[in-house]
Description:
four-stranded mixed sheet; about 45% helix; globular
Amino acid sequence: MIRLHHCHQTRSMRTLWLLHELEVDFDLVLYPFDETLRSDAYRTLNPLGRVPALEIEGEVMTETGAIAEYLCETHPDAGLGRPPGDLDRMDWLVWVHFAETVTQHTAALTQQHVALFDDSMRSPTVMKLEARRLARCYDVIEARLSTPVENRDYLLTSGFSAADIGVGQAVYMGRHFVTLDGYPELAKWYDRITEREDFHKSLPPEDEGNRLYAQDFYPPWGGPGG
Length: 226
């Protein structure tokens, strides 16, 4: 039994995408992005009140990088992991966990632009700082994809993997705050991986109201009245 506890357009989306790519059977429990995650019932699964929580084999996993490692190790035939001894193993680990580096800046921007309803709590300085940090993450991905290696279509030389899923989903969230303008290789890679059917399966349905982002892009905010 595998059960994913999920909110649309959050970190748990990368686990949902990975589960679809692995073609495993699982149950999906959907939550609104609100106080429900802080209920006593949900905190028995994830004490931090965050998603994802993945119930599997009678245990619960909560960190997306660890989840990706575990699922790829237990479903090796899907080819989305890189086992010990593989030439791409070290790079695979780095990029799987780099997804969270990207997401920490997006999470801060989401809090500032979306979660804080009172303008007095928002900070244009924090917004600009986190946007610059997110752009530096884009710089790192652009540099990787610009490396002159034959068939550099994905983050790893050996092809598509859970690393592309994790980082790709992080960029999906990041694009709400920092566009891909000026990142030609990153943009081409992002278009390539988001054409996949299983990426589209991980998106909110068009008629689903429990979206985290009410708009496609949140422009820089200049303060109250700006």
